[in-house]
Amino acid sequence: MKTKWLYYPVMALFMLLAGCDARHESAGASALVLEGRTMGTFWRVSLADVDASRKEALQKAVQQRLDQDDRELSTWKADSVLSRFNQYRGNDPQPVSDNMADIVTVALRIGQKTQGKMDITIGPLVNLWGFGPVKQPDKTPTPAQIAAARALVGLQHLRVIQRSEGAYLQKDLPDLYVDLSTMGEGFATDHLARLMEEEGIHNYLVSVGGAVLTRGKNSEGKPWRVAIQKPTDKENAVQAIVDLQGHGISTSGSYRNYYELNGKRISHVIDPTTGEPIQHRLVSATVIATTALEADGWDTGLMVLGEEKAKELALREKLAVYLIVKQGDGFTSWMSPQFKAFILPDRE
Fold first, then answer.
1. Model pTM?
2. pLDDT above 60: residue 245
3. Which of 2, 22, 89, 121 has its CA 20 to 30 A from that of 11?
4. Which domains, ranges and CATH numbers included, belong to the chain?
């Protein structure tokens, strides 16, 4: 549905811009910037008023935290907790971490709110269209292949069970394949924010792939600013700039991750109800929420819904949403009332 989180090389919308913005905003003697790779994308942490002598220890702590997440949530590692659940063919509840249970719980709730458009069981369709571990197809999948993959998809087949001894996942479809890539960047970003707080750091901007979260001020004592990119794969132009005010932000877009097949552009954003890549005019959906995980789940569902239904849902749920829509040779934008509170009037 969204850019592959685990070991897929294409950058998400916010990655470069969040990085550029962080470099611009954190310039100063007391700024400390950490960077690295994880889960097939990049992570970045910008810190204000943190002594440079802590850099090596913090770099190590961040990488260890993200490596731990990868060992739990990867669909590309055969021995990860999630992969073992996907390989299991029974219907007994399987023990998982609280982290994984939290992600799935949020995903099930957002999936229900988006009429099933945000579906973490969409893995068979993602793989069929060549956006997973399986290579890209040399011809368009047939209706029969799409139908067969769709038969293996559905949030109704997945349950989270909380017991006194821990959390469990249960499936009633043996071949159900759970793919948390649509929310992994947001979860990992929140996880890094918690790590910063544990380290006694309260002024930071953290990002993993296309998800960003900020707290406090930058090294100049000003709000951290994050840019929304214009919908083009040829330049890094700024569409809008926001002050997150301690929130998380994530973008899902249809223009960065695609391939050409028989003269047709195949988007990585797949509609689980049709089994095919989206064809509508909505090219980018950005969401600001209290956590990056929430934002990362909502943006995917809104992107699949398309312009009109996404607007209706944003207004009904009072979500902070910014949409960019293809209009002729250009683009138009729309933001919900809740999003307007985060927009900065200038681009300096």
1. 0.86
2. yes
3. 121
4. 81-181 (1.10.3980.10)
